[in-house]
Write a structure and sequence with these properties.
Layout lengths: L4 E6 L4 E7 L1 E6 L2 E5 L6 E13 L4 E14 L2 E6 L2 E3 L5 H16 L7 H21 L13
Parallel strand pairs: 1-7
Antiparallel strand pairs: 1-2, 3-4, 3-5, 5-6, 6-7, 6-8
Helix pairs in contact: 1-2
The structure holds adenosine-5'-triphosphate.
The site of adenosine-5'-triphosphate has 13 residues, from helix 1 and helix 2.
């Protein structure tokens, strides 16, 4: 059995990344899951969370805001609503989006509006967490991102 997996990450706007990894972890419907070569076929929705691409010596961190993942033998396809690598995330923008969501929630919105605001809050928190935790730790030589 091969000891790598081919991973492709696509959004409606672009192909963010494709390449070989030894493992990918992602926010599946049942929580954070690790996918290794030989994983059983699987189709799952994605939550708001972090994708980590593991290669021999590097890890690359990606914020994803939902979507679906398909696991087939040797191949993982991630169709993401939005996805940004840690070095692409604009920290000030994420901070501003988070502050807007916090203010909207503090203003006691009608229940029907809460899920949308709460999702914006989670996206803002996630992007901030990833940019602050991982900024400067990428290995762009090893992990080329499509722009
Ligand atoms: P904002 O209010 O700042 O647009 P948002 O959470 O509503 O935040 P999304 O709808 O999730 O934004 O994303 C819209 C587009 O902007 C996507 O292409 C996404 O990748 C990108 N994006 C959103 N926030 C950031 C950020 N902080 N840094 C870089 N790209 C971002």
């Amino acid at each position: 059995m091969a000891n790598t997996l081919q991973v492709e990450i696509v959004t409606p706007a672009r192909k963010l990344w494709s390449g070989e990894v030894e493992m990918v972890t992602l926010p599946g419907a049942l929580g954070q899951m690790g996918i290794l070569p030989g994983h059983a076929p699987l189709l799952s929705t994605l939550d708001i969370g972090e994708i980590i691409l593991h290669t021999g010596t590097t890890q690359q961190f990606i914020a994803v805001s939902g979507g679906v993942v398909e696991v087939r033998p040797g191949k993982v396809t991630i169709l993401a609503d939005t996805a940004e690598s840690s070095e692409e995330i604009d920290e000030e923008r994420a901070q501003a989006a988070l502050a807007r969501a916090e203010k909207l929630l503090a203003d006691n919105p009608p229940p029907s509006e809460r899920p949308v605001i709460e999702a914006a809050l989670r996206r803002g928190n996630l992007r901030l967490k990833i940019v602050r935790k991982h900024h400067g730790r990428r290995s762009s030589e090893a992990m080329h991102f499509d722009k």
